[in-house]
Amino acid sequence: MSLVAGRGPLSSDPAGRFTPPIPESVVYIEPHPRRIQATRNGRTVIDTERALLVHQQNRPLSYVFPADVITGLPTEPEPDAPGFVRVAWDAVDAWFEEGRELVHYPPNPYHRVDCRPTNRRLRVSIDDTQLVDTEETLILFETALEPRLYVHPRHVRTDLLRQTETASYCNYKGYATYWSAVLGDTVVDDVAWTYPDPYPESRPIAGFFSFDPTRIDVVAELPVSG
């Protein structure tokens, strides 16, 4: 994800620049000596430590496998890695890397999450009602993505929030729960999210709230993008 998505160096909108510029067609392929498994119809159909990772502009990060370890699945040759093939993500029921189930894409070895306590101010409101106003926040830096502020529930008007059925998954943070704002007859869906049980690399944000500035009024003191 991180090299090719967001503002990663191989994305279509990189945060920095190469000198001299590299061609858009550049592909980065590397060994990925982790145990990759996949299941289909209740049985293991892929189990290998010989996968490669392929980083390519405007394409999601992908595994490719030695052709001789894939049987009974549709494959596509990888032209930049002779003898290796791609398997479509939805060709199997579940993917695993060293025992962790994956959703949507492989985790990237260059992706990093840093959670730091800070005194950056966060103010959140809906109409004239304030939900958050505090400088006791936590900032989450995540490779190739914009930083975000998280806040402990003691600083949140949680009496005005209601958990929804919406959920999402991140290979680096885990499963997120979403919350709507409810003020009398006014309901604004999915204005906030929390990670009740995040993965170890994101443990400091467990139970903390972050807010969606596209759905609710958010004033966050964040680093200025370059």
Protein architecture, described:
With 226 residues, this protein is mainly beta. It is built from no helices and 19 strands. A 5-stranded antiparallel sheet has the order 1-4-5-7-6, with no helix packed on it. It is globular, with a radius of gyration of 21 Å. The relative contact order is 0.14. The mean pLDDT is 92.
Largest sheet: 5 strands, antiparallel
Share of β-strand residues: over 45%
Classify the secondary structure makeup into a structural class: mainly beta
Chain-averaged pLDDT: 92
Shape assignment? globular
Compute the number of strand runs. Answer: 19
Runs in which pLDDT lies below 50 for 5 or more consecutive residues are: none
N-to-C span: 21 Å
SSE order, as H and E? EEEEEEEEEEEEEEEEEEE
Number of helices: 0
| Helix percentage | under 10%
Strand order of the largest sheet: 1-4-5-7-6
**Cα radius of gyration in angstroms:** 21 Å
Search tags:
226 residues; mainly beta; five-stranded antiparallel beta sheet; four-stranded antiparallel beta sheet; 0% helix; globular
What is this structure's SSE topology?
Elements: E1 27-31, E2 36-40, E3 43-48, E4 52-56, E5 59-66, E6 76-77, E7 84-86, E8 94-97, E9 100-102, E10 113-118, E11 122-126, E12 129-134, E13 137-142, E14 148-150, E15 161-170, E16 174-183, E17 186-194, E18 210-211, E19 217-220
